[in-house]
């Protein structure tokens, strides 16, 4: 297998105006990739794009900022088309857009559940359906979905519908990976599971919530981004945990669940 060449990579990152998405744009730009970054907020997105150009001084790639609402199928198709029009292809697609909620399960409204499904599940589904045919035509590609440890170990009941939506995302991601494994083994599908990350995620949750940056043991967005960038370089499929002890926590939870405790 030939060595991974970052300078040949065209990477699409959604939810790129802040948090993990913005950090990932910087991480892959520093390694030499060309990045297509997408989010709804033009000013913040342009600032991240400018920072990517600065970060990539030693290995300059090209970067394209596309304002898009990934809960709209047409916007996701337009994002794909913009990337292909500019660079001729997409090599990696990172579905990172997401939003939390602070609401116990029994208090959830229809609108709140629908909002969680739209931003955390449908946005990623639209990405899969937009880019996978392109990957199939090229015979290779890499799709990564940013989820949460709460999809594996639901230890924060106030995040009820967010946890359920991200669990659904993981199921769709794994279904796609299995569907492609035989017919297109060079298309890799991965789901990334961070824990608490020191971003404004908590403040932006539907219904408000604690500032994630104030929670003990929060991982930095830069550290999470580095794990994702390493997964891209290794062309990893399946589950990617951003901390080495995370898998043990998942297995411990499943063992306890199986024992009825």
Helix content: 40-55%
Q: Nearest-angstrom radius of gyration?
A: 18 Å
Query: Total helix count?
Result: 8
**How many angstroms does the end-to-end distance come to?**
46 Å
Major beta-sheet overview = 7 strands, parallel
The average pLDDT is 93
Principal-axes shape call: globular
What's the number of extended β-strand segments?
7
Number of domains: 1
Output the CATH topology.
Answer: Rossmann fold
By CATH reckoning, the class would read Alpha Beta
Biggest sheet strand order reads 3-2-1-4-5-6-7
Strand residues, percent: 5-15%
Order of helices and strands: EHEHEHEHEHEHHEH
| Uncertain stretches of 5 or more adjacent residues | none
The computed structural class is alpha/beta
Supply the CATH architecture: 3-Layer(aba) Sandwich
